[in-house]
């Protein structure tokens, strides 16, 4: 197993451990984050019904990945408010809460989401 496979496997295990403890509902959906090397993806998920309420990504945003994460956090907060959601459960997807993930979370909080 090379280093990349090892890192992805470890992230998947961390994510599974976190997912065993948290779940989204209609009143408080899960804000799930995934980041690739180039882009950041976010979804608001109601796990009880298995439905994605809103989604945003950084594929259309120009600039650095960090700037894209800030824009995605703001976008998802606007879409959440439009869907009538203010409280969410933050699912960092097995990624460390630093850098891009932290920037996304901070911008979502600034835009009005509570978690």
Automatic annotation (TrEMBL):
<dbReference type="GO" id="GO:0008097">
    <property type="term" value="F:5S rRNA binding"/>
</dbReference>
<keyword id="KW-0689">Ribosomal protein</keyword>
<keyword id="KW-0699">rRNA-binding</keyword>
<comment type="similarity">
    <text>Belongs to the universal ribosomal protein uL18 family.</text>
</comment>
<dbReference type="GO" id="GO:0022625">
    <property type="term" value="C:cytosolic large ribosomal subunit"/>
</dbReference>
<comment type="subunit">
    <text>Part of the 50S ribosomal subunit; part of the 5S rRNA/L5/L18/L25 subcomplex. Contacts the 5S and 23S rRNAs.</text>
</comment>
<dbReference type="GO" id="GO:0006412">
    <property type="term" value="P:translation"/>
</dbReference>
<dbReference type="InterPro" id="IPR057268">
    <property type="entry name" value="Ribosomal_L18"/>
</dbReference>
<dbReference type="GO" id="GO:0003735">
    <property type="term" value="F:structural constituent of ribosome"/>
</dbReference>
<keyword id="KW-0687">Ribonucleoprotein</keyword>
<comment type="function">
    <text>This is one of the proteins that bind and probably mediate the attachment of the 5S RNA into the large ribosomal subunit, where it forms part of the central protuberance.</text>
</comment>
<dbReference type="InterPro" id="IPR005484">
    <property type="entry name" value="Ribosomal_uL18_bac/plant/anim"/>
</dbReference>
<protein>
    <recommendedName>
        <fullName>Large ribosomal subunit protein uL18</fullName>
    </recommendedName>
</protein>
<dbReference type="Pfam" id="PF00861">
    <property type="entry name" value="Ribosomal_L18p"/>
</dbReference>
<keyword id="KW-0694">RNA-binding</keyword>
<dbReference type="InterPro" id="IPR004389">
    <property type="entry name" value="Ribosomal_uL18_bac-type"/>
</dbReference>
């Amino acid at each position: 197993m090379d280093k990349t496979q090892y890192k992805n496997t470890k992230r998947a295990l961390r994510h599974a451990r976190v997912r065993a403890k948290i779940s989204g509902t209609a009143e408080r959906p899960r804000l799930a984050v995934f980041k690739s090397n180039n882009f950041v993806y976010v979804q608001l998920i109601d796990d009880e019904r298995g439905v994605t309420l809103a989604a945003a990504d950084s594929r259309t945003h120009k600039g650095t990945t960090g700037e894209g994460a800030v824009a995605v956090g703001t976008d998802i907060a606007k879409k959440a408010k439009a869907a009538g959601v203010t409280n969410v459960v933050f699912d960092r997807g097995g990624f460390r809460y630093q850098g891009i993930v932290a920037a996304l979370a901070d911008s979502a909080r600034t835009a009005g989401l509570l978690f």
